[in-house]
């Protein structure tokens, strides 16, 4: 037995009227297994046909059905045939009193123009639905169990053929000039024929021994498919359906076969062999009985009935619900794709043959018939898929499906799904996620945005949607923005301030928001954020003085951005010290970059109140423009002396625009010796400068360097005089004499017996330097003599050289003479 592979689930019908609270004995176990597994989306949806059909079945019971894209033909146990539309309404009150007992089978031609029926009363009736000239009533002397019209019966040249089945398979047709009724026995002797299906060129029928196929084009039987089970035919009728002109589906008992008519290889044909044969492409056994079979693309739709596992309840048979399954067939097994339990009315009392399944393949409609019920199943479309996803809270998948299949949707829209998702998130408390999704869902729809914002406001969760509220495209009503701002003004001052900064000022009424802030200021213990917001709003109103005052009062760094954004440089001349208190570096840079708007004189005037700030400003100013700040160099000397001495001496060296006497006095007061030395040197008081170096600094190297710079022999003499009683100083002098002072003078003045550190080395160096000088002089003399001789020789040769004179030049010379 082939084992069914796939999901094991038992979906109850969800449509109203199809869900039955009477569960099978295994339902509790099924429910428990469903809870432990993820629910799988059903493939089909169901609807119970009602309208006129309800009243018909309340008085009678259905025995068979035939379906066509135009209508349904329902046969009953009282012999009636009702023509209905696909939702159960009578079509033009057509009700045919066809038979006196149960209608066994109904067949409709391909065009839907003619209908044939048979019954146990032995009558076969052919009824034209739009014309009556080809109507027929044929009476047999035995019950007729099956009938099938030629699909092309509606064509006048088709011979008006149909096949009936009782103990014989009889081909009925009209032939000859007068169109007489002709009967041809195609098969007999194997018991009652209970089902016939005519598809294209082929007729398939089932009797007690199996299924046979007859080829109408060759007038021959081409195959026999044996019955491979021992079930009684009257309890489980063989189900036959042509998927197409060459593919036959067979469902009989618990066996399913798929058979394909193929052409014989002509090279292998023998005498009287049929030109076609049937190949079984799939064959498997199920764990249920087949009540009906139908094609669904490459899959099968099977109406199934549980195998007898019956129990007696109060002396009556109690059956389980039938199932409608979608199977994927393979050669020896199948995979179950879906399995829906049908709550058919009165299913507890029905047997396998009480159910019928017919389909309209073009529309994927499947009609399930029981004596008191007709249910139509159809493939779920994108609307159904989205509905199921939403019912299972899978909104993101639903939105993706709606976006991808928007043209196929009839009941759903992307926006409606998105709004439902937002409601779901809000109800679940996922406020931030809902706010974030608003942009994706609502897009540029103004009314939808306003509707959702009011929902957030109602549950006091505006903070979740505020970052995503559009400011343009679409621009919402002012009341929306003001509502959001007022909410944050009360609940979250920091977020309020952020919105005031981020939102354009024309989105809301500035004056009303300012008044609201002023009304809350006195009640706030920490009003800083409110004041910042107020400053921003004043800036929106171009009340820059008020905005500046607030920011400076708060010492908030945004004041610089405010000044830069709105070019308020002309309004800060009296606020410079406050700005310096806030950020010296940014203030100075701003002032230097805007000298034209904020003159240096005004800045200096303001900063005179704070010498430290004045130093910072003038220091940066002189670094940028030394020549253009001459009038402030005198102040800078004092400021450098007070706040940054390392910069004083470089400045004194670099500048020539400060009063020397004043600068010297400032350095003298502060006892800045090096600076005094430089200033005394620049003032010409070299002796006092050298004295400071020798006495205060005691730096002989500095003294020697100073003398070298001044190039004054008297100054060198003073240095030598001062150094004579200081051995270390003498050593330094001996190392540096030569070019600037005669070493004999220094050596001759050294006292006898004085110990001079490094004297020998100094004397050696002096001698080496002297020899070097002599060598340089001799070399220079030789070069000079050589150059003199060379130049003299060149002059003599030049003067001895002949001069070219032409005739005209000679004549001119004679005339001159």
TrEMBL record:
GO BP field: cellular response to starvation; endosomal vesicle fusion; macroautophagy; protein targeting to vacuole
InterPro entries cross-referenced by the UniProt entry: Beta-prop_Vps41, Clathrin_H-chain/VPS_repeat, TPR-like_helical_dom_sf, Vps41, Vps41/Vps8, WD40/YVTN_repeat-like_dom_sf, WD40_repeat_dom_sf
Compartments in which it is found: Endosome membrane; Late endosome membrane; Early endosome membrane; Lysosome membrane
Main localization of the protein described in the UniProt heading: membrane
Sorted UniProt keywords: Cytoplasmic vesicle, Endosome, Golgi apparatus, Lysosome, Protein transport, Transport
Record's compositionally biased regions (Basic and acidic residues): 1-21
Positions with biased composition (Acidic residues): 22-40
Domain Vps41 beta-propeller per the UniProt entry, residue ranges: 44-378
Renumbered ranges of CHCR repeats: 588-732
Record-stated family: Belongs to the VPS41 family.
UniProt name for this protein: Vacuolar protein sorting-associated protein 41 homolog
């Amino acid at each position: 037995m082939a084992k069914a592979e796939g999901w094991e689930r038992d979906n109850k019908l969800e449509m109203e009227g199809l869900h039955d609270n009477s569960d099978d004995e295994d339902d509790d176990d099924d429910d428990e297994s469903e809870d432990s597994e993820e629910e799988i989306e059903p493939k089909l949806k169901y609807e119970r046909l009602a309208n006129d059909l309800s009243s018909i079945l309340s008085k009678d019971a259905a025995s068979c059905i035939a379906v066509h894209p135009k209508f349904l033909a329902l046969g009953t146990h009282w012999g009636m045939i009702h023509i209905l539309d696909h939702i159960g309404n009578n079509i033009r009150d057509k009700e045919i009193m066809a038979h006196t007992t149960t209608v066994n089978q109904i067949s409709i031609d391909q065009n839907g123009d003619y209908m044939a029926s048979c019954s146990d009363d032995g009558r076969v009736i052919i009824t034209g639905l739009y014309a009556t000239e080809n109507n027929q009533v044929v009476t047999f002397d035995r019950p007729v169990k099956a009938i099938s019209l030629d699909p092309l019966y509606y064509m006048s040249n088709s011979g008006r053929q149909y096949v009936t089945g009782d103990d014989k398979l009889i081909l009925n047709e009209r032939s000859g000039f007068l169109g007489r009724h002709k009967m041809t026995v195609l098969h007999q002797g194997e018991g009652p024929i209970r089902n016939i299906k005519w598809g294209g060129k082929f007729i398939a029928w089932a009797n007690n021994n199996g299924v046979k196929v007859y080829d109408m084009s060759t007038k021959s039987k081409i195959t026999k498919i044996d019955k491979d089970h021992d079930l009684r035919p009257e309890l489980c009728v063989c189900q036959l359906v042509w998927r197409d002109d060459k593919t036959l589906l067979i469902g009989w008992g618990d066996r399913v076969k798929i058979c394909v008519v193929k052409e014989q290889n002509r090279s292998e044909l023998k005498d009287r062999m049929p030109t076609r044969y049937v190949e079984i492409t799939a064959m498997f056994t199920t764990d249920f009985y087949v009540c009906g079979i139908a094609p669904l693309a490459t899959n099968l739709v099977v109406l199934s009935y549980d195998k007898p596992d019956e129990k007696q309840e109060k002396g009556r048979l109690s059956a389980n619900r039938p199932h409608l399954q979608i199977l994927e067939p393979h050669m020896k097994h199948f995979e179950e794709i879906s399995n829906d339990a049908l709550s058919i009315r009165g299913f507890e009392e029905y047997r396998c043959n009480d159910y019928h399944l017919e389909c309209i393949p073009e529309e994927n409609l499947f009609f399930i018939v029981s004596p008191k019920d007709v249910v139509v199943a159809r493939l779920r479309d994108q609307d159904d898929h989205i509905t199921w996803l939403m019912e299972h809270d899978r909104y993101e998948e639903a939105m993706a499906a709606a976006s991808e299949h928007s043209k196929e949707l009839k009941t759903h829209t992307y926006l409606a799904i998105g709004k439902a998702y937002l409601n779901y998130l809000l109800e679940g408390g996922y406020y931030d996620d809902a706010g974030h999704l608003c942009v994706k869902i609502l897009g540029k729809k103004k009314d939808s945005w306003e509707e959702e914002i009011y929902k957030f406001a109602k549950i006091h969760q505006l903070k979740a949607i505020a970052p995503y509220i559009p400011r343009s495209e679409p621009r919402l009503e002012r009341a929306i923005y003001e509502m959001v701002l007022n909410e944050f003004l009360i609940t979250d001052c920091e977020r309020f301030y952020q919105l005031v900064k981020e939102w354009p000022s024309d989105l809301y009424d500035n004056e009303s928001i300012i008044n609201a802030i002023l009304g809350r200021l006195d009640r706030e213990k920490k009003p800083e954020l409110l004041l910042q917001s107020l400053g921003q709003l004043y800036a929106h109103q171009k009340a820059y003085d008020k905005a500046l005052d607030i920011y400076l009062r708060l010492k908030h760094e945004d004041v610089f951005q405010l000044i830069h954004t709105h070019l308020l440089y002309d309004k800060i001349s009296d606020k410079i010290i406050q700005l310096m208190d806030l950020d010296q570096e940014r203030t100075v840079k701003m002032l230097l970059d805007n000298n034209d708007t904020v003159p240096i004189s005004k800045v200096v005037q303001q900063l005179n109140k704070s010498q430290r700030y004045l130093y910072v400003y003038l220091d940066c100013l002189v670094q940028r423009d030394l020549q253009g700040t001459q009038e402030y160099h005198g102040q800078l000397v004092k400021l450098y002396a007070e706040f940054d001495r390392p910069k004083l001496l470089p400045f004194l060296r670099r500048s020539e625009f400060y009063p020397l006497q004043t600068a010297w006095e400032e350095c003298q007061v502060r006892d800045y010796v090096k600076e005094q030395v430089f200033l005394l040197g620049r003032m010409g008081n070299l002796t006092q400068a050298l004295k400071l170096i020798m006495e205060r600094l005691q730096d002989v190297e500095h003294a020697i360097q100073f003398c070298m710079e001044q190039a004054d022999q008297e100054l060198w003499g003073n240095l030598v005089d001062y150094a004579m009683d200081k051995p270390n100083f003498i050593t330094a002098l001996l190392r540096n004499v030569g070019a600037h002072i005669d070493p004999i003078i220094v050596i001759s003045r050294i006292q006898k017996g004085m110990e001079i550190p490094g004297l020998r080395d100094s004397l050696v160096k002096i001698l080496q330097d002297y020899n070097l000088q002599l060598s340089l002089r001799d070399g220079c003399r030789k070069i000079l003599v050589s150059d003199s001789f060379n130049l003299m020789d060149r002059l003599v040769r030049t003067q001895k050289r002949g001069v070219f004179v032409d005739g005209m030049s000679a004549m001119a010379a004679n005339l001159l003479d």
